[in-house]
Amino acid sequence: MLIKTEICELFNIKYPIFQGGMAWVATGELAAAVSIAGGLGIIGSGNAPAEVVREEILKVKEKTDRPFGVNIMLLSPFAEDIIDLVIEEEVPVVTTGAGNPGKYIEKFKKNGVKVVPVVPSVALARRMERVGADALIAEGHEAGGHIGSLTTMALIPQIVDSVNIPVIAAGGIADGRGFTAALALGASGVQIGTRFVCSEECTADNNFKKAIINAKDRDAVITGSSTGHPVRNLKNQLTRELERMEKEGKTREKIEEYGSGRLRLAVREGDVDNGSVMAGQIAGLIDDIKPVKIIIHDIIKETAEIINSNNNLLKEEK
Ligand code: TUI
Fold first, then answer.
1. Which residues contact residue 20 at a Cβ distance below 8 angstroms, ignoring those fewer than 6 apart?
2. Residue ranges of the domains in the chain?
3. From ligand 1's centre to the CA of 147, what distance in Å?
4. For ligand 1, atom 17, which residue shows the shortest CA distance?
5. Confidence band of 177 (pLDDT split at 50, 70, 90)
6. What is the CATH number of domain 11-203+286-305?
C-alpha cells in the first residue's frame, strides 16, 4: 500500500515519513535504516563537532544512495561548522531545531540543500516560508526533547492555514492513528522520533529503549522550564533533582550545568536513572522493539485501513 503526498516527490521518498533527528540517538545506522525503508532518515547532530557528524554521514552513504538528512541543533556551539559540513558532503536535506535558521537559509539554497525548519508557532512558520524554507516541521508539545508550548492538535491546522509550503506534523505520533490524524489536520507527512528509538537498528543503549517501553502515559515530564529551554524526558532521579532545583529557585546557570552531558549518559552509557531519557508523551503507547522496516510498514498499513474504513462510513441519505 502507498500513501503519497507532495513531500514524497519534493524529497524523493517513498513514504511521507521523516525520522526525528534526535541528538545521540539518531546515528547513521538508524538514519540509513529509515531511508532504506522508504522514509527520510535524519542524523541528529546535537552538540557534536563536525568531524563526528561526518562519520555518521559517511555511514549512511556507505549503506544507501537514498536521500537522507542532517538535523542541526541551533543551540550547538558547532552549528556553523555543521552547516559547512552538510554543504561539503552534499547532504540533500537539512532540518533545524531549537532556534531560527533564517540567516542560513540562503546559503543552503544556493548550495542545493533543502531546508526544513522545525517551528513551534505560526509566526516562525510564516517567517520561514518568507525566507525560502522548502517545507516545515510543526512540532507539538507532546514531542520529546526541546519543546514548544502548543499541542500538535492545535498547532498543525493553524500552521497549515498560514503557509503555502508543505507541513510535516511532529509530536505524539507513533502509529497509523496518529499518522491519519496528522493528515486530517492538513499535514503532508509526519516526523516520528520516540517510536524509532525502539527499533532494532537504533544504537541507543538497551536501557534507554526499555525505559520507553516501561513508560506509562504521564511519565514524560518537562524539566528546565525556568531556563527558557524546556525539555521533555522520562521521569527519573534526574528529573526529580532538576524539579527540586527549579523549586528552590536555583540559577539558570546552575540548572544547565547540572543537566549538561545527561543525554549522552542515558543514551550511550545506559544510565537511565541519572541521565536524560528524552522521549515524547506517546512513549506510553510503545511496547516493543521492531525493525525500522516493520515500524514503517505497520504505520502505513494501519493508515490505509483507517482511511478505507472511514470511507465505508459514508452512506447516501435515503
Ligand atoms: O530541537 C528539538 N528537540 C531537541 S533539541 C535537543 S538538544 C537540547 N538539549 C538541551 C537543551 C536544549 C536542547 C533535544 N531535543 N526539536 C525541535 C524544536 N525546535 N522544538 C522547538 C523548537 C524551536 C523553538 C524555538 C524552534 C524555533 C524556536 O525559535 C525561537 C526563535 O528564535 O524564534
1. 26, 42, 44, 71, 143, 144, 170, 191, 192, 193, 194, 196
2. 11-203+286-305, 206-281
3. 6
4. 97
5. very high
6. 3.20.20.70
